[in-house]
Structure formats: structure tokens, C-alpha cells
Design brief:
The chain is an alpha+beta fold and about 270 residues long. Helices cover about 45% and strands about 10% of the residues.
């Protein structure tokens, strides 16, 4: 479930009421009110007033305030679920969240929407909100760059289905695009070491985030693309086709330059 334009639509009065339940220091509350009332300058130079809604975009306090406000949504939704006899869990990252349940009590999802829009004063993004049954064939859940789906076990031959998760196709496409930008012809005057350092920083950061789950297939795609782009970069730096200096293959050549390769260890194979 997703909230439309969350940071721009948080109602100040309701947010401050939530803060007053935990903060007794009037000077702190006054400072927060001033932050919320601060005008923002758009790229075109136009000053925009908050008009009683929204937290300052890019402000250091905005992520904290937004999380505090949605924390109260989780609290209210949990109370409503208990009253309705609905067993569920909420997993949230900023304004994106997933509600997990084995089965739904009639009308409960409507109750959640009424809490968000009525009690919290927000707007549900119904285009991005949907109900999924992960036990259904070809059912896929995309959340914070991960793709979750049920697949059949082939390693041990049990045929049982288990939850498989790893980088989404969109995330793989994004990191490949960034690798493309680092190895673009506009950077041909940079040294190979500098470009390798930039690509490595990208791969290590991306790979670290997706180091859990089952990312091996995505890692292979990204490794192949990064190697292909570096090979093309080397050829662009040479007036003629690049001559391998340190190995017989581009793989060996880039290993010499220290190009990082994403790797994943399947813990299932290492069990005793």
C-alpha cells in the first residue's frame, strides 16, 4: 500500500497533535512548528508556502517527522485489527508499506483505507495499492527494490514451494544504467583506475543492499554488463582496438585493474 505525495500532504495539525503526545517541551514544539511553516524555494525561484500541509522537502527533520506520523497509523491499525479479530503484520519503509495476513476479515482493508484518509488525513495511491496472494502462480510482490515470489525447490528435489526474493528487474535496470553512465564516452579522458573505482563503488553499494535473499541471477547479469561496459570503455580509450596487456581475456584484464565482481554464497549448500 502506498500513500500519494506523502511528504507534501501530511496535515500539520494532526502531526503536531501526535508530537504533543510524546513531547512536553514547548520550545521544541515551537521550533518544529517553525520548520513546518518555512517556505521552500522551487528551482525556478518561486517561493512556496506549506499552507498547513507537508514537511519541507530535503529538510533534515522531514524523514523523522514522517516516520513519527506513520508510526501512529501503525498503532491505530493494530488496535483496529485486534478489535476486528484480524491477525496481521505491517512492514513499512517510509511511506511504502505492506500488510501481511494469511486471510482477510471482511471489510478490514476498507477500514485501513478509512484510517489513512479519514483519521490521518492522507490519500491512498490506489494505482499502486493491490491485494496479492503469494501462493498463486506467477504472483510477484515488489517492495523497496526487492521482488518476492513463491518458487519450487529444485536443489533438494522436494518440489515444495518456498519464498524467493532478490533484486527486482527495475533495480537491475537502474544499476546497469548507472554503470553505463560511469563508462560513457564522455568520461574517456579519465584513467581506467578512476573509472574502475567509480564502478566498484556503485557495485559494492548495490550488492551490499541486495546481499540477502537469492540475488545470484541478478548479480550475474550486473557483472556481465559491467564487464562489457568496461571492455567498451577500454576500446574507446585506444585509437585502435584495445590490446590486452595483463591477461588473455577482458575478464582477466579487468581482474588486474581490480573491477569488483558481485558474489553470493548459497548458505543452503554450506549446511552440514
Amino acid at each position: 500500500m502506498t500513500v500519494s505525495s506523502y511528504f507534501d500532504t501530511i496535515p500539520h495539525d494532526k502531526l503536531l497533535s501526535a508530537l504533543e503526545m510524546r513531547i512536553a517541551d514547548g520550545s521544541v514544539l515551537k521550533l518544529i512548528r517553525q520548520w513546518l511553516k518555512a517556505c521552500a524555494r522551487e528551482p525556478n525561484g518561486v517561493m512556496v508556502k506549506p499552507k498547513g500541509r507537508g514537511t519541507p522537502q530535503g529538510g533534515v527533520i522531514s524523514p523523522l517527522l514522517s516516520n513519527i506520523y506513520l508510526h501512529w497509523f501503525e498503532t491505530i491499525a493494530s488496535i483496529a485489527a485486534k478489535a476486528a479479530g484480524q491477525a496481521m503484520s505491517i512492514v513499512r519503509y517510509a511511506d511504502d508499506f505492506v500488510i501481511l495476513a494469511k486471510k482477510w476479515t471482511a471489510g478490514f482493508l476498507g477500514k485501513v483505507e478509512s484510517i489513512l484518509e479519514g483519521r490521518m488525513g492522507l490519500t491512498v495511491n490506489r494505482e499502486k495499492t493491490k491485494v496479492l496472494d503469494l501462493d498463486a502462480e506467477h504472483s510477484v510482490l515488489n517492495f523497496i527494490g526487492y521482488e518476492f515470489r513463491k518458487v519450487r525447490d529444485r536443489l533438494f528435489g522436494t518440489g515444495k514451494r518456498y519464498l524467493h526474493f532478490g533484486p527486482s528487474a527495475k533495480s537491475v535496470k537502474r544499476v546497469c544504467h548507472e554503470a553505463h553512465e560511469h563508462t560513457h564516452s564522455r568520461n574517456v579522458l579519465l584513467s581506467v583506475d578512476v573509472v574502475v573505482e567509480r564502478v566498484n563503488k556503485l557495485l559494492k553499494g548495490w550488492g551490499g543492499f541486495y546481499s540477502v535473499g537469492y540475488p545470484s541471477r541478478a548479480f550475474r547479469k550486473v557483472n556481465h554488463y559491467a564487464l562489457k561496459r568496461m571492455a567498451r570503455f577500454l576500446n574507446r580509450k585506444s585509437q585502435r582496438c584495445y590490446r590486452l596487456k595483463f591477461a588473455d581475456t577482458y575478464y582477466g584484464e579487468m581482474t588486474h585493474y581490480g573491477l569488483h565482481r558481485l558474489a553470493w554464497v548459497d548458505v543452503r549448500r554450506t549446511r552440514n
